[in-house]
Recover the amino acids of this structure.
């Protein structure tokens, strides 16, 4: 025997298989279809970083929104599968119901849109932005929620005082990104 271990390969954290998502419209009897995501397959393994790059308007944001099951008409998933493996939980996002998807949002699955600094309101403090986009998803009381936010900031090597700042308090390179 060669000494190789018989450990099975762990399942990927994310598996996208033959994903197709098309914008479909019908106006004045004319049907149109834009194949924004067309036969995309890839997987991301544990402890792996996956980058997505492409030209402007090539479908990067549509792909991410489709993977996160955050789409609205006229975008429609035509075929394929998106499966996440969160520790002991396996979830096919297009076979799951709304309750199952809501249970993983912001805990296991989130994404940052293009122009994310534009999301931060310049006349509101950063803490309020965290409350706006994550508080209801985490199901914690406010003190516990803010503790989670502070712990997250610490992992990013940011001081908790950032929560009291306005977006305009950050360096120009950060605020205009």
């Amino acid at each position: 025997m060669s000494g190789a271990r018989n450990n099975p390969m762990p399942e990927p954290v994310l598996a996208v298989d033959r994903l197709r998502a098309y914008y479909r419209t019908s106006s004045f009897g004319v049907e149109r279809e834009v194949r924004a995501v067309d036969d995309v397959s890839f997987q991301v393994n544990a402890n792996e970083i996956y980058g997505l790059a492409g030209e402007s308007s090539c479908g990067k944001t549509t792909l991410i929104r489709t993977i996160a099951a955050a789409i609205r008409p006229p975008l429609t998933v035509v075929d394929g599968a998106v499966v996440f493996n969160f520790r002991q939980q396996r979830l096919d996002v297009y076979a799951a119901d709304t309750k199952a998807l809501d249970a993983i949002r912001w805990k296991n699955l989130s994404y940052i849109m293009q122009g994310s600094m534009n999301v931060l309101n310049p006349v509101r403090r950063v803490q309020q932005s965290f409350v706006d986009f994550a508080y209801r998803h985490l199901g914690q009381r406010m003190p516990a929620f803010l503790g989670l936010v502070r712990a997250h900031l610490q992992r990013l090597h940011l001081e908790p005082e950032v929560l009291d700042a306005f977006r305009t308090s950050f360096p120009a390179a950060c605020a205009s990104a």
